[in-house]
Amino acid sequence: MSEGSIVIGTVTRRDLDRFTFTNENFENVIVDLANGESAQKFVEDAIKKYENIDAAVLTVGGFAMGKIAETKTSDINTQYQLNFETAYNIARPVFVQMLKQKYGRIFLIGSRPGMDAAKGKGMIAYSLSKSLIFHLAELMNHEAKGTNVVTSVIVPSTIDTLQNRQAMPAADSSSWVTPEKIASIIYYYCSDDADSLREPVIKIYNNS
User: Fold this and answer.
1) 128-187, pLDDT tens digit by residue?
2) CA 207/CA 46 separation, integer angstroms
3) Would strands 201-204 and 149-156 be described as parallel, antiparallel, or unpaired?
4) Strands (DSSP E) along 31-185, which ranges?
5) What's the rounded Cα separation, in Å, for the pair 162 and 29?
C-alpha cells in the first residue's frame, strides 16, 4: 500500500467490529464468500471501480479435527464449504477477469495435510477439503496456459498468530512462520522480478 496499491479486504458482518486496521488505500467490504452471487457481485463492483484486478489472496477457511471413525459426511460438507466453496466462489470471477485483462496472480491457501495424506491423519474432513485447492490450482493453470495469469497455492507451516500461541502454549513458536513473512513472499511473487515464475505450490515452512 505504500506504493499506491489499493487493497480490498473482505470481512463478515460478525467480525467487522474486531477489524481495526485502517489505511487510506485499504477498503473493508462485508461479503459472504459462501454465497456465490455475493462473491460475484463483490468482484463485479471492484472491477467497475478499479477496472483491473492485479492479485487476489484468498485466505478464508476453517479447521476441524476428526478421524475417519468420527467424521460424518456432514462434517466433510462443512469443511468443504469453508475451505473450497469460499475459495472457488471468489476465484472463479477473479480468474475470468484476469483472463480478459491477460494478467493476474491468484493465491489460494493450501495446507500440508491437504497436500500430503500422511499429514492429514486425525483431520479427515479438513484434509479432504484442502486437497481440492491444489487440484483447482492445477485446473486453473491449465486453462490459463499461454497467458500471464498464474494461480499458486501457498502452503504455510504453523502460522505465528495470537490464536495459535494461545491454543499451543507449550509449542516452540520460533520455528513458525509469521504472517508478515507470508505477505512479503506473496508480494514478491506479484512483482516484476517474479513475472516469469510459474510456481503452482509455494511452501513457506521456516524451520518446521
Assistant:
1) 999 999 999 999 999 999 999 999 999 999 898 888 898 889 888 888 999 999 999 999
2) 38
3) parallel
4) 55-58, 104-109, 149-156
5) 24
pTM of the model: 0.92
Distances (CA, A) of 107 to 24, 65, 70, 165, 189: 24, 25, 32, 25, 10
**C-beta pairs of 156-162 under 8 Å, 24+ apart in sequence:** 156/109, 156/111, 156/182, 156/204, 156/205, 157/112, 157/204, 157/205, 157/206, 157/208, 158/208
Spell out the domain ranges in the chain: 52-204
* Amino acid found at 7: V
CATH code, residues 52-204: 3.40.50.720
Distance, C-alpha 63 to centroid of its chain: 14
DSSP state of 32: -
Rounded Cα distance between 190 and 60, Å, is 20
**H-run or E-run covering 201:** strand 201-204
